[in-house]
Design brief:
BirA Bifunctional Protein, domain 2, 9-stranded mixed β-sheet, 3-stranded mixed β-sheet, 4 helices, disordered N terminus
Length: 236
């Protein structure tokens, strides 16, 4: 008796390529332009991009941003060199400045395991949790809130937020991304209600006791690149 031949097994699709670039310090509006350039390229078929950079001091308001979450007027902020800009991403109000690593992930969702925006955000949180764990900081998610958090050492103290996430999607291509506090001056967050969360205070890897030492920021950048490549693709 002859055996019925098995149907050929389709080869497993290779993960999408992810190109990671360190841009240095970039003014916020220039960063928006760089994102738009990358978004159009990815939409046309180029590899996914992760743009890593720092911004000079700026406060941004997402689509859910509320002006009452500014504790200073835009004029007062501008007087001390802090821009206020409305941006096309999810989320409320946040602050960017030196000592904070910003990552803009421009990814064609159709190349991912499933074109699910909620899963995409959860994967971003997981990638960041892996990174900070490598520096000795135990972080976690909080149900109903987007971002990466650190549990308070004393019950009843505010939950501390280590990284914020806010993305936009255009034609199934993501833009914007995350902001991870590395060794930023946390006093700068006093001018806003971060992400509109009154019961949360901002923290950083430095404050949480992450081993710093020489080239701390560059080691964090390398860890981010590797972690996001594992979650979102292979290094291009």
């Amino acid at each position: 008796m002859s055996e019925t031949p098995h149907a050929p097994v389709a080869p497993r699709a290779a993960p999408p390529a992810l190109r990671c670039d360190w841009l240095g310090e970039v003014p916020y509006r220039e960063g928006l332009a760089r994102q738009n350039e990358a978004l159009e390229a990815v939409r046309a078929g180029a590899e996914d991009r992760l743009l890593l950079l720092e911004h000079p001091p700026v406060v941004t308001l997402g689509r859910a941003g509320r002006r009452e979450h500014l504790r200073e007027t835009p004029e007062a902020l501008a007087a001390r060199g802090v821009e206020v800009i409305e941006v096309p991403r999810g989320g409320d109000v946040t602050y960017h400045g030196r000592g904070q690593l910003v990552g803009y992930l421009i990814s064609n969702l159709r190349r991912q395991r499933s074109p699910d925006i909620h899963r995409f955000v959860r994967d971003m949180e997981a990638a960041l949790i892996d990174v900070v764990g490598a520096f000795g900081v135990f972080a976690h998610r909080v149900d109903g809130r987007t971002g990466v958090f650190v549990a308070p050492p004393v019950a009843g103290d505010p939950t501390r937020k280590l990284a914020s996430i806010g993305i936009g999607v255009r034609h199934w291509v993501t833009h914007h991304g995350f902001a991870l506090n590395v060794d930023i001056d946390l006093r700068e967050f006093d001018s806003i209600v971060p992400c509109g969360l009154h019961d949360v205070e901002m923290t950083s890897l430095e404050r949480e006791g992450a081993s710093s030492g020489p080239e701390f920021a560059s080691r964090v950048r390398r860890a981010i690149g590797l972690s996001f490549a594992r979650r979102f693709g292979r290094v291009a």
